Amino acid sequence: MVTVTKKPDQATPTDPGDHVESLESIAKLGEVLEAPPPPDGQVVKSDQDEAREIVTALAVLRAAAVPFAPDHVQQPLMTVWSDPQLKAIADAIIELCKLHGWTVGDFFGVYGPYIQLAMALGMPLLVTIKLLKTPPPKVADGQQQPA
């Protein structure tokens, strides 16, 4: 049995809509109340807006990286790094941000330079690997290969 006590300075809700119906609704209300107010003049983005922006950024990276792969694996790479997979990655980033109380901007503010460094190193690395795996040009009999 639960006993509810009323503090003297608390008002009793008179509207039936004023009470909370479940623990989930309490949690949602708590999230709303604890959320920092948006800075003046800025629009608060929804999770879906944030996810779309992340998916777009990942799609640009995919479009830049896949052409560096050998021709015979480009289509399988596009299958592995499909749009639904990019959406799942974006959703995971958003959930990670929620877990730590960050905005997506906070996440990229903290980890953005690391991601930028990985991409700056990654593209030359992909080209280097492709070049190293490229077989030497075929030469006719009796001719020397250049050193």
Summarize the structure.
The chain is built from 5 helices and no strands. The chain is an all-alpha fold and 147 residues long.
What's the average pLDDT? Answer: 76
Strand content: under 5%
Number of strands: 0
Spell out the helices and strands N to C: HHHHH
User: How is the biggest beta sheet arranged?
Assistant: none
Helix content: 55-70%
- Helix tally? 5
Q: Quote the distance from N terminus to C terminus.
A: 88 Å
The Rg value, from CA coordinates, equals 27 Å
How is the secondary structure organized here?
Elements: H1 23-34, H2 47-65, H3 71-80, H4 83-100, H5 104-133
Structural write-up:
With 147 residues, the chain is an all-alpha fold. It has a domain at 45-133. The chain is 61% helix and 0% strand. It contains five helices and no strands. Helix 2 packs parallel to helix 5. It is elongated. The N and C termini lie far apart (88 Å). The model is unreliable at 10-20 (pLDDT under 50).
Key attributes of the depicted protein:
147 residues, mainly alpha, 5 helices, elongated
